[in-house]
Amino acid sequence: MSTSQFPTRQLYYDGRAQPASSGKTFKSINPSNATPLAEIQVAAHTDIDTAIAAADRAFHSWSQTPPIARARILQKAAALLRERNDEIARVETLDSGKAYTETSTVDVVTGADTLEYYANLVGGGGLNGETTQLREDAWVYTKKAPLGVCVGIGAWNYPIQIALWKSAPCLAAGNTMIYKPSEFTPLHAQTLAEIYTEAGLPAGVFNVVYGAGDVGAYLTAHPTIAKVSFTGQVTTGMKVAGSAAGNMKYVTMELGGKSPLIILPDAELDSAVDGAMMANFYSTGQVCTNGTRVFVPASMKTAFEKRLLEKMEYIRPGPLFDDTTNFGPLSSAVHAEKVAYYIRHGIETDKATLLYGGLGKPQVPKELQDGFWIRPTVFTNCTDDMKIVKEEIFGPVMSILTYETVDEVVKRANTTELGLAAGVFTNNLNLAHRIIDQLQAGITWINTWGESPAEMAVGGWKNSGVGVENGRRGIEAWVKNKSTLVDTNGAVATVFAKL
Ligand code: NDP
Question: pLDDT digits over 388-437, tens only?
Fold first, then answer.
């Protein structure tokens, strides 16, 4: 008998939940105490084919639906998400291990914002093309056409937000979608599908399949799929992009980072410490844009570390639904092991100085002791060649590095194959802009860290990704362009005229 807290999840396609035919299931686990939450049915290849066929059938009429009518449905879905915010956030907390103080104020809200943003954009003419007068009797007009059936593949750190950041522009532009959540955090997907259906989305426009990497790989290689939008690790992204490119599919890749956070000597100390903590410990460090390489002027190191150590005491692991808890476990046992491996490596092999935290679990109540908890950890006296400084850890581990000059720190900040985010803390705004201009990253901040509103197009440079999500530019990733040259002259200019 199953001891799961929620009913078994079936696949969702053609407008309703449908049983998978594989006969296989996997479990979603509550990371705070390692107890099972639900059984999830795994999609067989035939189920995926059927879901894709439903999405393909739905594409014709959805893509022909006027943008303003599509917008009305998506706006209603955004309103339903907001109405059900607390209930959805509760499930996100159980599934991902993130504190309810986060999920109830950020995860659903920022997803609904993006849905509303794209609904308003297309409803207000955002998919209109351009007209260019070439000469008196000739002009060019362009049209943005949807791509077809698209795939969204999500990571586990911001489950419903990722599902919405992908499905909102996809559906607003007139495409249909097959969405595969991470197997570690699948519970949001059916709720989102049901909300879309309740809002009036036609059957087959948004569909959900479950499974691990092989399900993702099957989707990515499927001949009917026009585009793959992927969020996950660089190594997986390279496989996905390679498979998609073989069939000339469009891709968007939102991948990992090892981002530099640069503090200048004139920065306000408290702001710099607060920024560095948000950039390393929010969501227990499981944020792709984390500023894990914290560059501090050598002259400021002692003061920075003293204030940081005082503030580290404000990190409060504990029961995830407590109003004061601001730090949860890692999202899975396997990920907790990976982060612990890096902490051990930092201590034993890199020989960085452990300033705070380290191996073992933080103090949590007895009933949470089986959860996937890791202590918030700070290393100092780090050098650029250390493994903990070079590789993405994706956990609550900060590395402090010191520097002497601006030229030096910019050069070191850019010495990485990743280029997701970067930021500067200083009161000298002229210098801040000059430094930002030189940093090789697609998402940058000045005197703040982490905010990523619907209006802001975000995406990585170098190995951190291809394309952007959100903002006006984000819609372009879900359409293809058609240019038409019209000539009303009446006589075709030809070189084949009679001499
Ligand atoms: P993974 O790359 O392990 O997995 C991402 C998704 O891809 C999961 O749904 C996974 O399935 C699926 N998948 C695995 N193998 C394949 C394959 N061969 N073909 C298609 N799909 C596959 O990433 P994580 O889930 O570990 O997420 C953490 C990573 O995501 C970090 O590197 C982080 O930086 C990055 N990230 C990037 C963001 C950005 O916007 N740039 C935002 C958030 C996270 P399953 O897990 O079910 O096996």
Answer: 999 999 999 999 999 999 999 999 999 999 999 999 999 999 999 999 99
Query: How many CA atoms does the CB half-sphere of 258 hold within 13 Å?
Result: 22
Rounded distance between C-alpha atoms, residue 10 and residue 38, angstroms: 11
Which DSSP letter does residue 441 get? -
Q: Could you give the 3-state DSSP secondary structure of residue 343?
A: helix
Long-range contacts of 198-202, Cβ-Cβ distance < 8 Å, separation of 24 or more: 198/77, 198/80, 199/73, 199/74, 199/76, 199/77, 199/80, 200/72, 200/73, 200/76, 201/73, 201/77, 201/171, 202/15, 202/58, 202/61, 202/62
Q: What would the two tokens of residue 499 be?
A: 């001499």
State the pLDDT at residue 4: 83
**Which CATH homologous superfamily contains domain 260-446?**
Aldehyde Dehydrogenase; Chain A, domain 2 (3.40.309.10)
Which pTM does this prediction carry? 0.97
Domain residue spans in the chain? 11-255+464-483, 260-446
Beta strands in 99-146 (DSSP E): 131-135, 138-146
Site to substitute for ligand 1 among 157, 229, 239, 466, most atoms within 8 A of C-beta: 157
Ligand 1 centroid – CA 466 distance (Å):
15
Q: For residue range 251-266, list pLDDT tens digits in order.
A: 999 999 999 999 999 9
Distance in Å from the first CA to the final CA of the chain: 90
313 in catalytic set: no
- Per CATH, which fold does 11-255+464-483 belong to? Aldehyde Dehydrogenase; Chain A, domain 1 (3.40.605)
CA–CA separation, 70 vs 200, rounded Å?
9
Question: Does residue 90 have its Cβ closer than 6 Å to ligand 1?
Answer: no
Q: Is 454's C-beta closer than 6 angstroms to any atom of ligand 1?
A: no
Q: Is 18 a residue whose pLDDT tops 60?
A: yes
Q: What is the DSSP letter of 300?
A: G
Q: Six-digit token pair at 17? A: 């939940």
> What SS3 class is residue 333?
helix
**Bridge-based pairing state of the strands 397-403 and 443-446:** unpaired
For residue 2, pLDDT over 50 is answered with no
* Burial class, 354, CB count within 10 angstroms (exposed 0-12 / middle 13-18 / buried 19+): middle
Q: Would you say the CB of residue 210 lies under 6 angstroms from ligand 1? A: no
